[in-house]
Amino acid sequence: MSYRLPAAAAAAAVLVLQGCATAPTPPQPTEDLNVGIAKTCSFTPVTPALGGEASSTITMTNDGWCAVRVKQSDGTPFQLGLLKVRPEHGRVLIQKLGGETRLEYTADPAWTGTDRFTAAVRPTSGADAALQVAVNVSMGEGVAPPPAPAPEKPATTTRSRTPTRSTTRRPATTQ
């Protein structure tokens, strides 16, 4: 035995079932985008002008990384970053994360002082923008200061502790 539903009833059933369905939620990021950040990390915000130059300053402790975060004037991340001048006392990672472009600086272990680097960021269209970054690094909590250099020892001559034997014969003495 089969039943036939009128077309209007079938359409109404489909609409009711669609109303019950929930839209799938996009997967949420599980990664913390700030893992490893220095305990003290601040930077001067800047929006680089296309074809121009801008400067920023990072102030951080040497117990992680710290980044200058930049976006294009329309709020989107830059498409590409290129390190033009490397820092002397650390390393830089340029990446797009969370809707921004990050220029992450990590100081050499136990190093403190001032450093600098220059990067170019490229937008979707238009000329690159140059970004000069000055970095001020202080000692972080729990970071041991670098060991003092060992004093230089004066050059000394070493003596052999093994007794030496003479190979010359002495004449016998008579009494």
Q: Largest sheet, described in full?
A: 5 strands, mixed
**How much β-strand is present in the residues?**
25-35%
* Count of beta strands: 8
Counting DSSP H or I runs of 4 or more residues, the number of helices is 1
Largest sheet, spatial ordering of strands: 1-2-8-7-4
CATH architecture of the domain at 41-138: Sandwich
Radius of gyration: 35 Å
Task: Indicate the percent of residues in helices.
Answer: under 10%
Query: In CATH, what is the class of the domain at 41-138?
Result: Mainly Beta
Instruction: Name the average pLDDT.
Output: 79
Low-confidence parts lasting 5 or more residues at pLDDT below 50? 26-30
* Shape field: elongated
CATH topology of the domain at 41-138: Immunoglobulin-like
Give the ordered list of helices and strands.
HEEEEEEEE
Structural category: mainly beta
**Kindly, what is the distance between the CA atoms of the first and last residues, rounded to a whole number of angstroms?**
149 Å
Brief overview, please?
It is built from 1 helix and 8 strands.
Describe the protein.
This protein is mainly beta. The chain has a domain at 41-138: Sandwich (Immunoglobulin-like), CATH 2.60.40. Helix content is 8%, strand content 34%. It contains 1 helix and 8 strands, in the order H-E-E-E-E-E-E-E-E. The chain has one helix at 7-20, and strands spanning 41-43, 53-61, 65-70, 80-85, 90-97, 100-107, 113-122, 129-138. A 5-stranded mixed β-sheet has the order 1-2-8-7-4, with no helix packed on it. A 3-stranded antiparallel β-sheet has the order 3-6-5, with no helix packed on it. It is elongated and about 145 Å long. The relative contact order is 0.18.
